[in-house]
Structure to design on (483 residues):
């Protein structure tokens, strides 16, 4: 079995990268050695986090010249997300910090224009040049606040002149979704192929086949994708796994929990049905003072190739790191952030804001005016306005808000659309609507209330409908949905 060397950059979703390459049929080894990186037959440079922090790790280790030489020689090298941005000359994220300089470009932040979510979280289209050998049209999963813009005069031409074939994605203008050179042996992806389902898995396998690491098979063909002329970030459908003692449970307003199945089996099924990502919540972790179930997270990660958000009992950077190392791609923080708001900043500084989800359980105020934050698994009502808390949480470092209506949870009466829209209008980051879904109509209402993603649990666990049927219904209503 061929071995792929992965540079240990400290990437927050390293477990997802490792699992994806192992599923593709190769063994994986981590390294911080420049000599090993220079000599490896196949090298992967992953990345989640900040530009400067990544360069501060690469430069002292002597990895910069090793990676630059590989790319110039056309030796098999695969970079992911921040790994692509590191190939550029510089980034607005970290003024004065030089990149690898293998792409004549400056990485820039998405503009905070009306209607533009930052970070971009979710599935978006990939449109390759005719010169691309490995990249095929399809939907890929992105998690980025910065990008290499292509809509600026001369930007694409400079990259092509440097030998790169480009794939374009659209979000606040055209930007670089991916690029390849040296007949596809060097591949750089702004998106996360390891989290892009069967389409991403086939891209990883094609790179490995092209590099000579594995033999070709039918699995290397990219699944047929019907892309619109100009895709936009898709609205996401997210099954939620509320987990207690290693089993999925469901209740009403967090009470009366009943068994709903095995989390690994449900996760596998929901991905096959077309789930855009999964949320895993340890519903007993905070109130009982336990750590979230990292072992169960690791088992789920091994069987899925879509993003996984994990929450419950996250009180520190160390708690978050344990979950990310186990296989989470994002961590949800609820009660701990209310009592220690600076935790959101600490997490964003360490892992990047695209990894930080502020979970808010909102209940109608007892005065009837607005919504209050409820913590400790529904047992503690705070005198905190939920909408204002969402806006403050974003300023502190949250890259996404998971908004659950405590009043509607488990009732199947539909989302609280008023609080959903109020929060969505108060923040620029994506908002996930949660609490009270009974059917696809409720999901559609959540999207109309400006939610970027819609979450449900009981209707999927109880077999009332499937992810595929729900997405078909949303597509029929004209929403941008990943097919």
């Amino acid at each position: 079995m061929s071995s792929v060397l992965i540079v240990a950059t400290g990437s927050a979703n390293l477990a997802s990268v490792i699992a994806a390459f192992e599923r593709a049929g190769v063994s994986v080894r981590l390294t911080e050695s420049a000599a090993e990186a220079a000599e490896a037959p196949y090298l992967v440079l992953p990345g989640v986090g900040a530009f400067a922090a990544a360069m501060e790790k690469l430069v002292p280790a002597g990895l910069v010249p090793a990676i630059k030489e590989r790319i110039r020689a056309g030796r098999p090298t695969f970079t992911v997300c921040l790994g692509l941005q590191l190939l550029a000359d510089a980034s607005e994220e970290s003024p004065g910090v030089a990149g690898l300089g293998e792409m004549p470009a400056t990485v820039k932040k998405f503009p905070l224009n009306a209607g533009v979510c930052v970070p971009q979280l979710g599935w978006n289209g990939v449109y390759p040049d005719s010169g691309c050998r490995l990249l095929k049209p399809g939907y890929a999963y992105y998690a980025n606040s910065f990008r290499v813009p292509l809509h600026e005069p001369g930007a694409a031409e400079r990259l092509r002149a440097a030998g790169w074939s480009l794939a374009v994605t659209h979000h606040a203008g055209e930007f670089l979704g991916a690029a390849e050179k040296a007949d596809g042996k060097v591949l750089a992806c702004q998106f996360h192929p390891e989290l892009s389902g069967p389409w991403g898995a086939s891209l990883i396998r094609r790179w490995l086949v092209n590099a000579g690491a594995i033999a070709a098979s039918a699995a290397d063909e990219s699944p047929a994708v019907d892309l619109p002329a100009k895709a936009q970030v898709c609205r996401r459908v997210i099954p939620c796994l509320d987990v207690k003692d290693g089993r999925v449970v469901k209740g009403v307003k967090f009470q009366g929990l009943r068994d709903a199945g095995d989390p690994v089996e449900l996760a596998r099924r929901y991905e096959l049905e077309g789930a855009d990502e999964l949320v895993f919540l340890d519903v007993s972790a905070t109130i009982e003072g336990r750590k979230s179930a990292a072992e169960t997270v690791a088992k789920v990660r091994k069987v899925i190739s879509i993003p996984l958000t994990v929450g419950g009992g996250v009180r520190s950077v160390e708690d978050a790191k344990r979950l990310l190392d186990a296989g989470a791609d994002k961590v949800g923080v609820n009660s701990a952030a209310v009592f220690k708001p600076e935790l959101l900043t600490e997490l964003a500084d360490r892992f990047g804001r695209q990894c930080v989800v502020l979970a808010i359980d909102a209940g109608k105020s007892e005065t009837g005016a607005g919504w209050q934050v409820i913590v400790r698994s529904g047992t503690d009502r705070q005198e905190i306005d939920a909408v204002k808390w969402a806006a403050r949480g974003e300023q502190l470092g949250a890259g996404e808000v998971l908004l659950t209506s405590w009043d509607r949870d488990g009732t199947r009466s539909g989302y609280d659309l008023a609080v959903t829209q109020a929060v969505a209008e108060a923040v620029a980051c994506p908002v996930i609507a949660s609490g009270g879904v009974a059917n696809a109509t409720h999901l559609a209402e959540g999207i109309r209330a400006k939610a970027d993603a819609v979450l449900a649990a009981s209707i999927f666990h109880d077999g009332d409908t499937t992810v595929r049927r729900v997405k078909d219904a949303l597509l029929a209503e004209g929403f941008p949905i990943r097919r």
